[in-house]
Design goal:
The chain is α/β, with parallel strands linked by helices. It is built from 13 helices and nine strands. Strands 5-4-3-2-1-9-8-7-6 form a nine-stranded parallel sheet.
């Protein structure tokens, strides 16, 4: 069983949603990324999404864009991100790590070489925002051959035919984008999320994580009643950029710990019942 599968199985058995923070690799600096990840895991992260910096991040709002700009200013590329994963793995063999990014860096490295290096580094899953399922069959098969989970986005406007296509290709989990917009946007409608998750689960048997717009304990707990994972990115990056870079691991970990505590305090049985519905 993969690290991702084991993590979701454990949380599902507990009747609780997994907590998955997102940060951009190289932010606030390349030599602090590993420390931030370790602080997030110590604070209760079940898995970590590590963003690969890119100059044209079409799905990302201004907070994540700023993080990419800071990382790119320090010359952080895909090879550097894989080196960071290798460093994380030296002390952590169990926390799943998902790379999230865009096609250009992977194609510049070469898909086959990327898959080999990602597997060797200890990556568990890969989400490429601009690889639509209709064009990703070969890439998904390549990842699968290297024991990497191809992860896909589903949005509020995704039609059922595309959800069916995603269900055939995806492994690990499916990431539901809860808003019509970019990361960090507001107006999270929990009832609409629950309705869309029910539609997704008619086709997708994998766990479904929900991200975009989750900014505090209340919104995290509301989503956790329906989702298999709560994904939080922009709000953590705001903590990272709020003060001195050397204090970023402590700030990010302290904030995430409040979310972990809130999720753990929620009634587990109610969460489990809603996810089975």
């Amino acid at each position: 069983m993969s690290r991702l599968d084991a993590t979701f199985a454990r949380r599902r058995a507990e009747g609780r949603a997994a907590l998955v923070p997102f940060i951009t690799a190289g932010d606030p600096s390349p030599d602090l990324t590993v420390a931030v990840v370790r602080a997030l895991v110590a604070a209760g992260a079940d898995a970590v999404e590590l963003g690969v910096p890119f100059s044209d991040p079409m799905a990302d709002g201004p907070v994540v864009q700023r993080a990419s700009e800071r990382a790119l200013a320090r010359k952080v590329g895909l090879g550097d991100v894989l080196a960071m994963v290798r460093e994380i793995r030296r002390a952590d063999a169990s926390t799943p790590i998902v790379l999230m990014g865009y096609a250009n860096p992977i194609e510049a490295m070469g898909a086959e070489r990327f898959a080999e290096r990602a597997r060797e580094a200890g990556v568990d899953g890969v989400l490429v925002v601009d690889y639509p399922p209709e064009e990703a069959q070969e890439f998904a098969a390549l990842l699968g051959a290297h024991a990497l989970a191809p992860i896909f986005l589903v949005s509020p406007t995704t039609p059922e035919a595309r959800i069916e296509a995603i269900a055939r290709l995806a492994r690990g989990f499916v990431y539901y984008v809860s808003l019509k917009g970019v990361t960090g946007a507001g107006h999270l409608d929990t009832a609409e999320v629950a309705r869309k998750l029910a539609q997704i689960r008619r086709h997708v048997k994998l766990p479904v994580g929900v991200g975009f717009g989750i900014r505090d304990a209340a919104s995290a707990c509301a989503i956790a009643e329906h989702a298999d994972a709560v994904v939080i990115g922009s709000r953590i990056i705001q903590e990272i950029e709020a003060g001195a870079p050397e204090d970023a691991p402590a700030r990010a970990g302290a904030w995430l710990a409040t979310i972990r505590a809130a999720l753990d305090a929620a009634p587990a049985s109610r969460s489990a019942e809603k996810r089975r519905a």
